[in-house]
Amino acid sequence: MKRIIAILVLTLGIAFQANAQDVKTVALEQTKGEFTQKALTLKEGTYIFEISNKGVGHDVGFVLAPKGKVEAKDHIKNAYVTSLVKNNGKSTSKKVTLKKGEYVYFCPLNPTPQYSLKVE
């Protein structure tokens, strides 16, 4: 019985570790009126967006939306940062699963242009 429990615990540990490795972090930095990364190309998969505020002087956010659909109703809500990004701080999104296609990212609080994110 102890052996079965040990094997189960080991199997679950490996499964959790493999699942955690499937989530990649995309670090993006905002300065006054812009993101320093002007375009991104990613593979299909699950991502967490980490947004840095580098001296903007006020809180910033992050919006990810399908290209051509930038109204609030079309935003990918899980891509919103979990809390506003304070000046010289960082914040992250929840997990976001991206399928092949074209997206845009921007910050309406900074405000920034819309930048291209392509998923292959």
Automatic annotation (TrEMBL):
Gene3D superfamilies: Cupredoxins - blue copper proteins. The keyword Metal-binding applies. Pfam families: Copper-bind. Residues 29-108 form the Blue (type 1) copper domain. Keywords: Copper, Metal-binding, Signal. GO terms for molecular function: copper ion binding; electron transfer activity. The keyword Signal applies. Residues 1-20 form the signal peptide. It comes from the Bacteria. This is Blue (type 1) copper domain-containing protein. It comes from Tenacibaculum aiptasiae.
